[in-house]
Give the backbone structure.
Amino acid sequence: MISLGSQGKNTFMEAVNIKSGANVLECYQCGKCVSTCPVSQYMDFPPREIMQMIKLGLRNECYMANSHWFCLTCSACSGRCPREIDIPAVMEAIRHLAIEENYVNDSKKVREIRKFHEIFLEMIKRYGRNYELRMMAEFNIRTRNLFKDVHLAPKALLKGKIPLGVKPLKSAKAIKRMYAMAEKLEKKK
Amino acid sequence: MARVGVFVCFCGANIAEYLDVPQVVEEVKRIREVKYAVDYKYMCSDPGQGLIRDAIVQHKLTSIVVAACSPRMHEKTFRKALSDAGMNPYLLEVANIREHSSWVHQKNKKAATDKAMDLCRMAVAKSIANEQLHEISVPVTKRALVIGGGIAGIQAALDIADARIPVVLVEKSPSIGGKMAQLDETFPTLDCSQCILTPKMVDVASHPYIELIPYAEVIELQGFVGNYKAKIKKKASYVNFKTCTGCGACWQKCPVKVANEYNLGLDKRKAIYTPFPQAVPNKPVIDAEHCTMLLKGKCGICAKVCQPGAIDYQMQDEVIEREIGAVVVATGYDMWDPTPYEEYGVGRFKDIITSLEFERMVSANGPTNGVPLRPSDGKVPKNVVFIKCIGSRDEAKGIEYCSKICCMYTTKHTILLHHKVHDSHAYVFYMDIRAAGKGYEEFVKKAQTDTAATYLRGRVSKIYKKGDKLMVRGEDAQIGQVVEVEADLVVLATAVSAPKDNPDLARLLGISYDKYGYLSEAHPKLRPVETAKAGIFLAGCTQAPKDIPETVSQASACAAKVCGLFAGDTMKKDPMVSTINIEYCSGCLNCINVCPYTAIVTDEVPIGHGSKELRTVAYINEGVCQGCGSCVAICRSMAINLAGFTDPQIINEIVSI
């Protein structure tokens, strides 16, 4: 059961609104986002329920949900939202707040997703772009599941979906500088 | 011999597609009396009507049958075509071969054609016995009676009076204003209710064409449209309104304190009182149930302090009569009593109030000077839970219908709460948000986003006390979980219900009411302000729950109807009314019991020619009769005949098939 009325101001909603630039209060629970979202069926709580949970100030329940980790940020939901709410930005805001407050869903799936994000960022840092083959290998090694999706590799290779090498971008250096700056900023906090 | 013309309509494809129109024409031509029969694509169009007009002249027709759509649709059109050709319009018969044949037998063309032929044969047979009838003229008394002085009655009275038609406005309580005078601000514009209402109230009091009779009730209405006689009982006010100056010395000195109805008992008034400071007329009345002078003969302070000497303890109820031509009923509504909601602790917990009580509290002239306060300890509430659909849409405890205004007034309440108590928070338990109206949806959005009212979708299951807080438990269906809100104050959005006196009033006026007690309109869509009884109109919530804009529109619509009724010195009405052959009338008076329009009264006639002894017979007032035919069916001596539906006509019809 959810207790309301005793927790005072809804600081969680304020934080989400500031971070995302959206106004969650605008949501009138029509559910168009849920039926639009390609991954809503895999989420603990579909986007509509997440919006209501933010409105009720259910901070911990929101953080512990896997919804914001499953969100692909594809923006199909916000593209169709009749109240023009930037739902991916809200999901992003919850991801950030959850990490900042060290309150993250520890399920295997979420761990894998976070690992995927980390490797992806490493790839960008190193090559300035994604290197699919290495990315797949790294992901399988680090998640200790060496043969995951290996059966798809020959077909994908033949179709040229997985290039064997990678050409680093000309602007790779600039991207590295961006990373360095971001890390500096992170440390200042 | 009769010469009948038959005109069969294709109605585009509506009739022609499903039955064989030319065959119907051929068939009716075989009837001896039919001298002319023709079909046409659209008989109601001008060339179609032209066919009828020309045929009447050319073939010297004596009656006309139009086989087309329902007479409800075009009987008037074709009657006019007959008149234009110099024929009595009531010699027309309509055979309804669209609604009664082509539309309902779309899958069987032969059967549909056969049925259309039968219908035409019947109409021809009936038309042969048709008689020339003439519209009835009824004289009109150009004065309107408006019952109820809320916003509906006020608006209707002002609009009628502005057309220079005298109005008698009767109000039950000591002041006009009604429920609207109790409201603080109105949705969706948040303009102050008093500020927009009180000028209209003053207009009513000062209008040269309005006779305002406050503290009075209509106790009898006799007569018929244009010619009613109303008896009005003026309750004894014990104050002479003519000499009273409304100075207020009497109610300041009066020692008796009574629960104040205007503020729903949230504070006290005196035994001599005006309902509220802006009352119209601003003259006090003495509450005879509580005044010690009237009860025990002791006190008399008000008479002592009254300088003009307006107090009169000997005053009696007075019955006055007014002749009127039309009535506008605007008796408003009652707030539904939420006592059956025991699981919410209604009656046990002081901090559960109704929406109108909340309205009084946030009102600037209310008992708490515009700040909502907890009735238990007088503290300002921080968390306020509003529960919608209390009594509405609840078949077990309340009423089936949606009260229409609660969604919006609750939205308004959340905004008003935020205005009055800045650090408060509103929670709203709702089942649906019904915001259909100009600016309404935007208003709800404003409440949800600007004042951040939390909307929880679900009915509250129970309320219990924890310390000095109320715990409100319900489901939030939006996340599928049970929620419990710690509340300082709970406001119940109680339903709108019909006034308790409505059934009595309906009986008195001779109009019908529905199972809830709302007065019934003549047609739910096309005659929403008229009743089945001619000359009686409905305005406002007495017909069904509605908001202020709708009420005002309906009141103005009533005024237009009244003005239309009074446009000429006499009124015309259809001659299809019952007549009694008193030679046959046995005086059983069963017809009086079945007449839904109270059109039949008793009459005394000599027993025989030249005899002085009298016997009782029934008498039908043709001004009131609507031609329903109930009396014809009940009359055992067959003394009653309905013009246009006489026995020979009906028998002809039956014999023809």
User: Anything to note?
Assistant: The mean pLDDT of chain B is 94. The domain at 578-655 of chain B is CATH 3.30.70.20 (Alpha-Beta Plaits). Chain B has 18 helices and 34 strands. Residues 15 and 102 of chain B are 5 Å apart (CA to CA).
